[in-house]
Amino acid sequence: MGDKVSDHLQIAILGGGAGAFAAAIRTNELKEKTALINAGLPIGGTCVNVGCVPSKTLLYAGEILHHAKHHGILGIELEIKSFDFRKVIQDELALVERLPHEKYEKVLKNLEHVTLIEGKAKFVSKNEIEVNGKKFNAEKFIIATGSTANVPPIDGIHEVGFITHIEALRLEKQPKELIIVGAGSVGLEFAQMYARFGAKITVLELGGSIFPHSEEALTDRLAETLAREGIVIKTNVAVTSARRENRKKVLSYRVNETQQEVSADEILLAAGKTPNTQGLGLDKTGVTLDKRQAVVVNPFFQTSNQNIFAVGDVTNAPLRLETTAGREGTLAAENAIKGARLSIDYNTVPYAIFTDPQLAGVGFTEEEQMKKMGVCACRTVSFADVPKAIIMRRTEGLIKMAIHPQTREILGIHILAPNASELVAQAMVLIKNRNTIDDVVNSLPMFPTLSEAIKIVALSFTKDISKLSCCI
């Protein structure tokens, strides 16, 4: 890492998370003089500090607790001698403290053309920023400042108090009752996590689906599974006000034109995120923002100012994931420096919710395919037809595949199952390479594995799978 930075740069990168770091690594490879300007979260951004890494650590702890009692194997009875919530949180935070050092700080030291500046950057003109009272010119800029949890317009919510995913990952005291406003990946993961830690959970979701980006049959089944664990999920809910009563936090909400209330120790807001564009001085740059205050970019991550690019959560890109942010950062750096026109086909990028079972998918849903093409051929198979799922006593899952009726090309695969986030990697390759169901049917997956589900659902387009042997 460079020790000093001059007033003039080739590239100034605003942010310190996945997108910013990927961009810095690429600009360093191209030997471009770069400043990485970070404010807010420590180096590493959301994912490693307050996102994927800590949340999946706690989710795994919850799985251990749950499956010790609910493994389904006759003749085995396990006893949990103790559960110390505070120690589980301390273990998670210790991992969070270690990973930024290993994966970001050490990496940064080896980037000889990149200098880290800790401070808030603000544009003072189209090609100049100010940081800590000092001004810097740059040929190109990459904005990768991420996003912050939304606070919905609920009357009294600020006076009553609430937590976001950040505070929920470092609570010192375990809540006995928790209200979560919003479903989606964050709301559902924290709902199951804290339910398995012993809390009574109520999820209030504004929309009609807990996760509208997946297949309805799968999200309905996931909601049923969570309900069996005691999680109360209500959809089409409008939360109207919050108040304190008898040391409890009470939310009033409207559902089906009736007013209802629910009380708890704590309220977790998981109602989406707002791009971090405020205070950047973008009004001085000619950069266009959308109604969410996200930076509008073209397919090549370029803003309405040809010298300013943007990646990750701060943009209006269709997917906001750590993996897409990192790839966007790499490509944006290439496009900014070389004038290339590299982009991402977001339809080939998978999503995952790390509940148990996990929900993952890639490509079109049936509804999306019908809207785009006006035609669809789809099949849904239960994991009760997958031998490994039967062995594991985990047959609650479903897999749905959408194909082109004429060419038989696979256009979408959505999976609800244990380890669905791992299975979707194979689905991603099939869709990216435009494989057909014939390619899958002629493949020879290992038996018995959960990944056989992809071949079984492909077979279901042409055969009655109930009449097939295990290894067909």
Give a description of the structure.
- The protein is of the alpha/beta class and 472 residues long.
- It is globular and about 70 Å long.
- The N and C termini lie far apart (56 Å).
Structural descriptors:
alpha/beta, 21 strands, 472 residues, 5-stranded antiparallel beta sheet, 7-stranded mixed beta sheet, single chain, 14 helices
Main sheet makeup: 7 strands, mixed
* Overall outline: globular
Distance between the termini: 56 Å
Low-confidence stretches: none
* Structural class label: alpha/beta
Short description:
The chain is an alpha/beta fold.
Reconstruct the topology from this structure.
Elements: E1 8-14, H1 18-29, E2 34-38, H2 45-50, H3 52-69, H4 85-109, E3 114-118, E4 121-125, E5 128-131, E6 134-143, E7 147-149, H5 157-160, H6 165-168, E8 177-181, H7 184-196, E9 200-204, H8 216-228, E10 232-234, E11 237-245, E12 248-255, E13 258-264, E14 266-269, E15 273-275, E16 308-310, H9 322-338, E17 351-353, E18 358-363, H10 366-373, E19 377-382, H11 387-392, E20 398-403, E21 410-417, H12 420-432, H13 437-441, H14 452-459
Parallel strand pairs: 1-2, 1-6, 2-3, 6-16, 8-9, 8-14, 9-10
Antiparallel strand pairs: 4-5, 5-6, 7-15, 11-12, 12-13, 17-18, 18-21, 19-20, 20-21
